[in-house]
Amino acid sequence: VTLTVAVDSVDAITGLAAAAQGAGRTVRVYIELDLGMRRVGVPTVDGAVALAREAADTAGITYAGICFYPGQVRGPMADDDPALLALYAQIERVATALDRAGLAPGAVSGGSTPTAWRTHEVPRLTEFRPGTYVYNDRTSVAGGACTPDDCALTVLATVISTTVPGQAVIDAGSKALGREPVRGAHAEGFGSVLGHPDVLVTRMWEEHGVLDFTSHAWKPTVGDRVRIVPNHVCIVTHLFDSVAGVRGSDVEVTWPVAARGRERRVSADSAVER
Amino acid sequence: VTLTVAVDSVDAITGLAAAAQGAGRTVRVYIELDLGMRRVGVPTVDGAVALAREAADTAGITYAGICFYPGQVRGPMADDDPALLALYAQIERVATALDRAGLAPGAVSGGSTPTAWRTHEVPRLTEFRPGTYVYNDRTSVAGGACTPDDCALTVLATVISTTVPGQAVIDAGSKALGREPVRGAHAEGFGSVLGHPDVLVTRMWEEHGVLDFTSHAWKPTVGDRVRIVPNHVCIVTHLFDSVAGVRGSDVEVTWPVAARGRERRVSADSAVER
To answer: Among the four residues A92, A161, A227, B188, which has the most C-beta atoms within 10 Å?
Structure first.
């Protein structure tokens, strides 16, 4: 396993270097760039060069390149989408400045699900890390990144109550689906029923979800199984301990979700390169 | 372990009875009442009596009483709060009708966090099941059920980036805090910083939360530890594999969260009384 840490401050480099040196190891770092999302990352070219130099000059740290997440670029994109073109220009600018400073980035790491299919256009890119892309979800559909048929992950639920007219309650609520909004077109509900895309999960509590079928011919009954296409699969994956790989109605494989949950304590050893 | 299942339909009783009989066991059931929440539950007195009789007459099923969740009763309540008084009257009506039908409920099971402190007023109540109550959260505070000092559960997070002025990014986002809204007073944000109740988590992604301290004297730096008071502890508990019991800054005990996660398959055996 090779660990690489994204950093955007001297403080992060200093702390990481101390932990690495304490363990007699080195840690690869990427200088994280803010390319317009305003979440994390170094916002200026000069700042990126200065931090890359700091990383390169710090014992215990291996300066490995730059990374970014263009989370502000969403929705259907034209070939000459201004947000995308601006992104490419910024990456080129930072990489060129690093080259000139003798800090040419070995890795240029980016990517997001909405921009994944434009990855080949990104200058100097060596790796990309889209997340949702693996399964897709209602957010990917709303943003034009895929069609409903491209959504591979669903939550299997059972109808448990139909005592309120026009409403079927399923045993999947916010603990199974998350409470993520879906933006853009079809911007309602917390999920939709596979095969009945107009039937939405309109309300949720922790263990209950409400399907509203008021204006729909389908009438579910207690015991019916439904598969819910979630708004945001990243959250859903985090809520389960395993994922079942199904073909038709056969479970062909079960994968444990290894990266979910959070440990109370992480030893210094686990934070450095092995 | 004694398993009791809340049911509101003949279908649920029939399915449960078949599973129980297949395993040579019996299952206790409560008839779930809809007392105004319009989620699940039998909405009428006659319906409750009919379903209780069905349960009592079904092999494999033990009719054990009634249950309800008064989720529609929220916020600060006066002594003679009409919603509470209506609730008490409805419970009395159902219980009396069951008595007359020879189906006196052995258990009357209810409770919610907002109404927990009025539990002694509920007619015939034999058990109550408040959830949030164990820890409390910003929703409990907003509803007048407790004060901020009564919130016992926080999420420990670290400031990882401060590159955007007025904003500190922590390593706790929707995978650590959930995305639950808080209703009523102080209805903003996804959590607040313990000791700085005006500093809120204003935006989130899966692994990032943004603290907005624009109009606050406190200036966090990278590496600072903060404790976030969440909007809804029920979701937060579900997101972690263990809970640390702390006194001051000492971890005195660690409890595994046994009931979180969802199994892909539940055997018939695990669904019946042992």
So the answer is: A161
Which three-class secondary structure state does DSSP give residue B183? Answer: coil
pTM for the full model? 0.92
Q: How far apart are CA B184 and CA B188, in angstroms?
A: 9
Q: How far apart are CA B237 and CA B257, in angstroms?
A: 7
Is the predicted ipTM greater than 0.90, yes or no?
yes
The answer to whether the Cβ–Cβ distance between A39 and B12 falls below 8 Å is no
pLDDT band at B268 (very low <50, low <70, confident <90, very high): very low
HSE of A174, CA atoms in CB hemisphere, 13 A: 22
Contact list in B for residue A175 (CB cut-off 8 A) is: 235, 238
CB-closest option in B41, B131, B180 to A179: B180
pLDDT of residue A263: 57
Q: Both tokens of residue B160?
A: 């990882």
By CB atoms closer than 10 A (0-12, 13-18, 19+), residue B149 is exposed
| Cα–Cα distance measured from residue B161 to residue A144, given in angstroms and rounded to the nearest whole number | 31
The answer to whether the Cβ–Cβ distance between A254 and B244 falls below 8 Å is no
| Residue A109 and residue A66 in contact, taking contact as beta carbons nearer than 8 Å | yes
- pLDDT tens, residue by residue, A181-196: 987 655 789 999 999 9
How close B158 comes to chain A (CA, Å)?
11
Residue with tokens 């200093």: A14
User: In three state form, how does the secondary structure of chain A look?
Assistant: CCCEEEECCHHHHHHHHHHHHHCCCCEEEEEEECCCCCCCCECCHHHHHHHHHHHHCCCCEEEEEEECCCCCCCCCCCCCCHHHHHHHHHHHHHHHHHHHCCCCCCEEEECCCCCHHHHHHCCCCCEECCCHHHCCCHHHHHCCCCCHHHCCCCEEEEEEECCCCCEEEECCCHHHHCCCCCCCCCCCCCEEECCEEEEEEEEECCCCEEEECCCCCCCCCCCCEEEEEECCHHHHHHHCCEEEEEECCEEEEEEECCCCCCCCCCCHHHHCCC
Which among A222, A235, A254 has CB closest to B11? A222
**DSSP-derived 3-state class of residue B87:** helix
Count contacts between A and B (CB, < 8 Å): 125
pLDDT tens-place string over residues B112-166 = 998 998 999 999 999 999 989 999 999 999 888 899 999 999 999 999 999 999 9
| Beta bridge partner(s), residue A62 | A28
The residues pairing with A230 across neighbouring beta strands, listed in sequence order, are A191
pLDDT at residue A211 is higher than 60: yes
How close does chain B come to A96, measured CA to CA in Å? 22
Q: Who among B176, B235, B238 is closest to A262 (CB)? A: B176
Rounded CA gap, B125 and A71, in Å?
52
Residue A94, exposed/middle/buried by CB under 10 A (0-12, 13-18, 19+)? buried
Confidence check: pLDDT of A267 > 70: no
